[in-house]
Amino acid sequence: MRMTRWLVAFLLLCVAGLAQAGQEADQGSEALQAFYNKVHTLSADFQQIQRDDNGNVVQQANGTFLLSRPNKFRWEYDQPYKQIIVSNGQIFKFYDVGLAQVTVRNINATLKATPAVLLTGGEALGEAFEITDGGKRDGLTWVHLTPKADNTDFKSVDLALTNNGPALRKLHDNLGQTTSITFGNVKVNPDIAASKFTLEVPDNVEVVDGRAKRGRGTAR
Question: Could you say which of 2.60.120.10, 2.50.20.10, 3.40.50.1110, 3.40.30.10 is the CATH number of the domain covering 5-209?
């Protein structure tokens, strides 16, 4: 599993789905709006399954997720590989423990062409996505989001919500693959230490600094 632009996009979309915890909404779009009104911090465990275009399981993963709006998050994989994705609101770091490598970018550059507006809310959400209420099926409230931009790595995202929280999130990419993420142990507005959104890079790890006017091996 390696960092791709759609992975960052998907975790931001999952944030929107997670934010429905504890809210009752008759329509999916209302569930998304509840995020901006109610959720400031969030923590959860997650399980991720990726399937190919034939429905076969390609990879499974699990880990933990932390959020502090608007742009701070920590997405940490425990299995099958140890990987950490962290944003302190300005700097984005992706640490592949197995490869002993950290990639550093400015947060705005990293989230370009991704649905970052799902962290900030407002009218920009409708500008970035076509949002369609999917109705209710099997006791779940569905919402379908299609990016308006042409340069994204995913085609659409489906969110299934219950009154007590998210039930299912599915991202459909341009290769016909589907990635699903489910969450457990969801806590809304918990106290989260600021240190959770920073990453101290070990001395023996290669640093690839993608920020403007910076070179390789200079960021810690």
Answer: 2.50.20.10
